[in-house]
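In this section we walk through a basic example: taking a raw amino acid sequence and producing a predicted 3D structure, encoded as discrete structure tokens. The instruction is simple. Fold the sequence below.
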Amino acid sequence: MSPAAASNLDYTPPDGGWGWAVVFASFISIGFSYAFPKSLTIFFKEIQEYFSVSYSDIAWISSVMLASMYAGGPISSILVNRYGSRPVVMAGGLMVCAGMVLASFGTSIIHLYLCVGVIGGVGLAFNLQPALTIISTYFQAKRPLANGLAMTGSPVLLSTLAPLNQFLFDSFGWRGSFLILGSIVLNCCVAGALMRPVNKLVKPKPDIELSKRNGEEVEGIGKQPDAHLSVDKENSCQRCLYRFIDFSLFKHRGFLIYLVGNVAMFFGFFAPVVFLAPYAKDLGIDEYSAAFLLSIFALVDMFIRPATGLIGNTKWVRPRIQYFFSFAVLYNGVCHLLCPLATGYTGLVVYSVFFGSAFGMLSALLFEVLMDLVGAPRFSTAVGLVTIIECGPVLLGPPLSGALVDIFGDYKYMYYACGVMMLVPGIYFFIMHYYNYKKLEEEHRKSADVEKRTSDEAVTLNANQDDQPVNE
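The resulting token sequence is shown next.
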């Protein structure tokens, strides 16, 4: 773990207090962000028949929504840095509500792409990123636990929304269901109201440059005010730019390792969840039993996420939490490769249990490991850069998987492909994090040697100065 990652804040996070209310608000906000696109898959088969489109076409609804959520990350990051988490989350809830209401009047599949996908997806971006960022301002020592509890919102809401959506569809059809879901998602506005900014008791830092200047340099400042004023303006502009978009992260070794592995991983990350209920229906399983698979998946996921947070917060795991993350990615890949071996409804229930545990473990660690690599102060901009790049595989993953179903007429090839796309990044993460930890240890040793050498030289210099008057 990078030594600077947990100790470079200019204040002491409370690690509790109102922070737990913020965790609950993030629980709701993150829950809707991740569970909402998955729960809409309940309507896919009926919408597919209504508009007479293919598996690949219908998969674009969730893909566009998830991709818009990720693509909106930098915009959300800029707004959070400028206005704080509270107003951004509330605006996001209103956007998702508007998107669902407009989608209920849809006359074509393109209409759903724009309303549910683009408008709803950007609204979810305004819910997700601020919720992740504000946790890092309230927690430091208990941050893995807080992240794990907040990320539990996704399975809790999914286990609720999956059967609820089936009930709404049977009662009101997909159009009426979209109207009702639009009102339900307004709970994000309530969550945003709870996100009070942390009380940062910042101690003023002395001006190092002024303290180093001698009398002549300080006097010279008054003689050339225009030159120094222009330099101050330039530095202010640079600080403003880096506050919003920190491109120096692309020189950060840990950030690049995380980014490359995640881009490959996200091609197979969401598709198995998106197609779980349609897969079950394709095997002849009734609608409610198919929807119940998502509830089983979410129930297991619900308990695994906080458990993962507790394990990740232990003194044995947290210093090497990147290995824990690598195992979670690998575990997902193995589950998908074994899925086609599951036969009948019982087999799918067993797969849902193992997949729920693997998915929950990975989701609980997904952003915690990024905080661990880049540190809490740079986390907001890091999330923005990561999500805008990841929106490509998030957008293309489910439709490409749906295309495999269209080509072969069988879901097993889709699950094989997703398994490979998760297995390879898992192996990559193990290798690269081992390399990263070794480099961090070398850099730490070199830094310690330099400090020791500097300290020894200072002691020798002081001893010589003490001896000099005696010799005279």
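Looking at the output, two observations stand out. The CA atoms of residues 464 and 470 lie 10 Å apart. The radius of gyration is 26 Å. In the next section we compare this with other chains.
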